[in-house]
């Protein structure tokens, strides 16, 4: 017997919510800022899955502050699904009882508080994801019922301009709207005509001109004045021993002073090595200001960005051959597409970490900080779904001695995953440890797994001031661990190094010192930097780069 079933329950529910909110929504879907809390109370129900757009950089902060003002006896137990939780208000909602469950990717400055709240039972943790993993779940089992997003401008019909910092907005809106959800946008300004339409009005239910511009963080700016000789030594080794060795053209740089140093010696040391045109031609990264000298020197063909970077707007607009820009001339960033390129199209990821264990697993977690992963694991892994071939990918795979044990005589390449760090980091904390703090954090915060950023079997190279460990050339775990000990310096891992064993590793080119690869330590100084200050970056950009005030010392 056929049972009568309703197939539009989501649409009916959404219609009822929007009918309750209709009195607050005017022409052009505009809502007065003073009606924002009432609007949220009309469209959000207890136990809803809610996304507050929280990116690496731009934040829907006015909507977050407004949601915090609802009465927890009326709206509670929300399940927050968002990539980042960097603002205090993101956690205040759990303290107040409005939210209960969290699925996220990156904690940023709230990492310590996330761990504390999990331990105290204030946060029920779903999982710590990578960005792509979380975005994928938006379209499966973590679709937001209501999403609170942000954009630079809206027009009188409700179309949105996300512009320079589009970041996560498209993926959030598409997942929410096409599953019958509700999308509410805060914008800095409502105008008659947008520079371009990034999100069509049909996908947006309400627009609020916020009382102040949304918060945005210049997360990817590194002052060249803070780059040390040690950073430059590591950068020289990376360029000569890895970039040049594998002819890496397609890559991502993590944030940090090592990769900034690499970017700043491309036009000097890199050109001396003859690598221009051979390396760094296609990149996936935010518009790092420290890339300006290399771009001006003609190193880079293409850069696609996860998000923007404050102060780089005019420079990017004037370099549209390099950056992806819209018809209006401003940057089009998109975290989902950049992460997809980072996962499947790159030949190398290079970045830093806080700790590496004796097996090569790395983590940015400490005992009481749930920092999350962000996008590093998507780029810092060997994507098994990759099928296209490049010279560097193939060479790295051909050097893996046990590949035959895994797939017989079938040829296959491998992503280069490089961890670059000094053996002792900030506060003289050892970078190499017998056991990651992630284990203790998992115990303290009641996590199912220690939060490992990059697993050891994905790491192909480690660069320290001691040299380079070519882990992809190690035939087994015993040799792999010996190579890690060789680069670990005077840490608890490094002091177990056996000189006779290390000598054999050098002969086999599994471990190489700077001298082995022809890097002259005496040249590792700031004279090699193409720009030595923020002012130099401005000058090299022809005045197009406009650093935020906090980076200006002139």
Provide structural commentary:
The protein has 554 residues and is α/β, with parallel strands linked by helices. The protein folds into two domains: 209 residues, Glutaconate Coenzyme A-transferase (3-Layer(aba) Sandwich), CATH 3.40.1080; 311 residues, Glutaconate Coenzyme A-transferase, CATH 3.40.1080. This is Malonate decarboxylase subunit alpha. InterPro entries: MadA, NagB/RpiA_transferase-like. It holds the Pfam family Mal_decarbox_Al.
CATH superfamily of the largest domain: Acetyl-CoA hydrolase/transferase C-terminal domain
CATH class of the largest domain: Alpha Beta
Based on CA atoms alone, the radius of gyration comes out at: 25 Å
Whole-number average pLDDT? 95
Strand residue content: 5-15%
Structural class: alpha/beta
What is the name of the CATH topology of the largest domain? Glutaconate Coenzyme A-transferase
Main sheet: strands, sense, barrel = 9 strands, mixed
Tell me how many strands there are.
Answer: 20
Give the low-pLDDT segments.
none
| Percent range of helical residues | 25-40%
CATH architecture grouping of the largest domain: 3-Layer(aba) Sandwich
Shape type:
globular
Short summary:
The chain is an alpha/beta fold.
Q: What are the main properties of this structure?
A:
554 residues; alpha/beta; Glutaconate Coenzyme A-transferase; 2 domains; nine-stranded mixed β-sheet; eight-stranded mixed β-sheet; 19 helices; globular; MadA
